[in-house]
């Protein structure tokens, strides 16, 4: 049985499951809401360990799980002590801290045992440190934009400011969504067109040189097989900017064997075997790595380039190269 950890809004999981059914692959899908209510029993006896999962009114043992697809969902164990009240708030806080530590130990053990199965990715790799991936890419000889994290304009100027060149800023890690007064706002990648009007000092912020791009690359990989598309758009950053006004042109693209080897090395260092990679090609044809995302969407790439990536995921679990 294949255990799929996802969330209820992930369409890519829906499409992949259609292929699971076609291939007659037994599976159970747990979405984020299901995972909150997951109950387990852990047993050490007769010379081995076993974990019993109470999943959606179905009892499944660790031995029955042959593979795990860590797509998006977070497996964890919630305490039922939210309304707990000890003799004092200080004591209550300490008991809650204790319960959280116990839950972490249990969760880490369960994830480690699941990771011994045939897996696509790992829950511990969902939020890869983006600064670390830039460092890995640089060490592997992959070009990256000149990048600086600074707290004042003078330092940014010294690191990045060049005559006629622009600077962009974006989150150090992931986009953060703010909800207030019935509205939702989010961070995004932006050019610093009015840079001189910014405060002299600020909190740690990431700045990069703005690459004069020819087109973008979106690369999906699974077990060192790479499926690439070139995206032609006029926006600053196709990963975050809106395509509502004019859809980009997307065509299949072949990357070099050298770049494949470098990207395979990057995935290995990040301890993932499936995900999406974003790159940019500048006007001179030079490649620049931007980021790697183990839980990124790949439906657009699959559809426009006819890669049938949801089928490829089913192939991974069937150990077969072709189904039809």
From TrEMBL:
This is ATP-GRASP peptide maturase of grasp-with-spasm system. Keywords: ATP-binding, Nucleotide-binding. Gene3D superfamilies: ATP-grasp fold, B domain (3.30.470.20). The lineage of its organism: Bacteria, Pseudomonadati, Bacteroidota, Chitinophagia, Chitinophagales. Residues 134-318 form the ATP-grasp domain. It comes from Taibaiella chishuiensis. SUPFAM superfamilies: Glutathione synthetase ATP-binding domain-like. One of its GO terms (cellular component) is cytoplasm. It comes from the Bacteria. GO terms for biological process: SOS response. InterPro entries: ATP-grasp (IPR011761), GRASP_w_spasm (IPR026455).
């Amino acid at each position: 049985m294949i255990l799929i950890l996802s969330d209820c809004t992930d369409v890519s999981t829906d499409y992949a499951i259609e292929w699971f059914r076609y291939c007659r692959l037994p599976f159970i899908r747990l979405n984020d809401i299901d995972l909150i209510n997951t109950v387990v029993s852990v047993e050490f006896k007769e010379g081995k360990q076993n974990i019993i999962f109470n999943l959606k009114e179905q009892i499944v043992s660790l031995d029955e799980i042959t593979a795990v697809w860590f797509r998006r969902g977070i497996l964890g164990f919630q305490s039922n002590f939210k309304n707990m009240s000890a003799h004092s708030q200080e004591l209550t806080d300490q008991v809650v801290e204790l319960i959280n530590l116990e839950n972490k130990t249990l969760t880490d053990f369960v994830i480690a045992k699941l990771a011994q199965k045939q897996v696509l990715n790992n829950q511990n790799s969902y939020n890869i440190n983006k600064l670390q991936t830039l460092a890995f890419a640089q060490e592997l000889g992959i070009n990256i934009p000149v990048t600086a994290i600074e707290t004042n304009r003078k330092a940014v100027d010294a690191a990045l400011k060049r005559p006629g060149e622009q600077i962009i800023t974006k989150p150090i890690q992931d986009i953060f969504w703010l909800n207030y007064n019935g509205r939702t706002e989010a961070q995004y990648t932006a050019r610093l067109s009015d840079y001189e009007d910014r405060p002299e000092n600020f909190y740690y912020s990431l700045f990069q040189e703005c690459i004069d791009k020819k087109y973008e690359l979106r690369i999906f990989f699974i077990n060192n097989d790479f499926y690439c598309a070139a995206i032609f758009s006029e926006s600053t950053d196709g990963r975050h900017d809106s395509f509502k006004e004019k859809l980009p042109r997307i065509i299949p693209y072949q990357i070099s064997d050298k770049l494949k080897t470098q990207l395979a090395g990057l995935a290995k260092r990040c301890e993932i075997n499936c995900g999406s990679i974003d790159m940019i090609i500048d006007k001179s044809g030079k490649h620049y790595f931007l980021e790697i995302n183990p839980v990124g969407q790949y439906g657009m790439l699959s559809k426009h380039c006819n890669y049938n990536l949801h089928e490829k995921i089913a192939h991974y679990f069937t150990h077969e190269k072709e189904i039809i």
